Amino acid sequence: MIRIAYFGSPSFSAELLRKLVLAPEHGKDFQIDLAVCPPDKPAGRGLTLQKSPTKHAAEEFHIPIFDVSAKQNSQQLIDVLSERKIDICLVFAYGEIISSMVLNSVKGGFINVHPSLLPRFRGPNPVCMPLLLDEKETGVTLMQMDQHMDTGDIIFQESFPIATEATIQSVLTQAISIAFEGIITLIKSGFKIVTKPQNSSLATYTLLLKRDDGYISSEILSESLKNGHIETSILPIYTKYLSRNKISAGQIPRQTSLYTLWKALHPWPGLWTTINQNGVQKRLKILTIDPNSTMRIVKVQLEGKRPISWDEFANNYSL
């Protein structure tokens, strides 16, 4: 039986872990014998320590957990991997750098699940960027990890179309199903891996999104509602992508819509603007946009207020 350590953190990583544990092959062909998760982090107003979703899933299935920083405790992690007799490691959105010392400590190596068609969209947000750039397809890559970011040899790759109404969550749902099938196929083969190198000349890199990347000025928002489009050249998130990849503006869409921005940036960092209320700048979150009318805002939430319809907002406030 193949003994696997699973590295992950966010909810979509926890979803793949659950699918693997519940697979008929689990306990027969393979066993998840360790979950490696980042340390609990303070969250909320009380800064209470919160477990990652992957840690919650591991506890649900009584999987042993390593939850101190792998980056700062490399030797300790190596010792645990050895003690658990781990044959191979699966990594899906772990969120920490894994040292080359750790990568070389497991005979079967480390396999990374990356939800894009590498070498395109290397980096931290491979689902966001295809939506932002209005791509027609994306995919999943299983890759042998090396010491660099998303540069390892490709083990498995499969593409799928991006539906017009697709969101980050719906794309991730498809990606998880494909990744699961790819992993099960590898397990059944006894991890007899045939790889191919990436063509790094075709590589593009995504951005680590920050809260301000979801900001759209009230002037641009008002103008877009009148004109039915937004020029990508005036939106920092596009210009930063161009700069990061040293590519020309002709390689991205010239115009975009509020719906495209919303679905690519929801739930984090979200699409938002600010309005002046009695001399105070307040954040206005755009919660929902009508996919059938891509410049029609449906629901918003003003800082400190309950969510309301756009029509109700427009009747009581002005941008």
Q: What global shape is seen?
A: globular
Order of strands, main sheet, comes to 5-2-1-6-7-8-9
Please, how many domains? 2
- Briefly note the CATH topology name of the largest domain: Rossmann fold
**Rg over CA atoms:** 22 Å
Helix-and-strand structural type: alpha/beta
Question: How much β-strand is present in the residues?
Answer: 15-25%
What is the string of helix and strand elements? EHEEEHEHEHEHEEHHEHEHEEEEH
Q: What are the segments in which pLDDT stays under 50 over at least 5 consecutive residues? A: none
Q: Which homologous superfamily in CATH is the superfamily of the largest domain?
A: Formyl transferase, N-terminal domain
Number of strands: 15
- In the CATH scheme, the class of the largest domain would be Alpha Beta
Structure characterization notes:
The chain is α/β, with parallel strands linked by helices. The protein has two domains: 2-202, Formyl transferase, N-terminal domain (Rossmann fold); 211-316, no CATH class. Helices cover 30% and strands 24% of the residues. The protein has ten helices and 15 strands. The chain has helices at 11-22, 53-60, 74-83, 100-103, 128-132, 168-188, 218-227, 236-245, 258-265, 310-316, and strands at residues 2-8, 30-36, 41-43, 48-50, 65-66, 88-92, 110-114, 137-144, 154-161, 230-231, 255-256, 271-277, 280-289, 297-302, 308-309. The protein has a seven-stranded mixed sheet with strand order 5-2-1-6-7-8-9. β13 (280-289) and β14 form a beta hairpin. α1 (11-22) runs parallel beside α2 (53-60). The radius of gyration is 22 Å and the shape is globular. The mean pLDDT is 94.
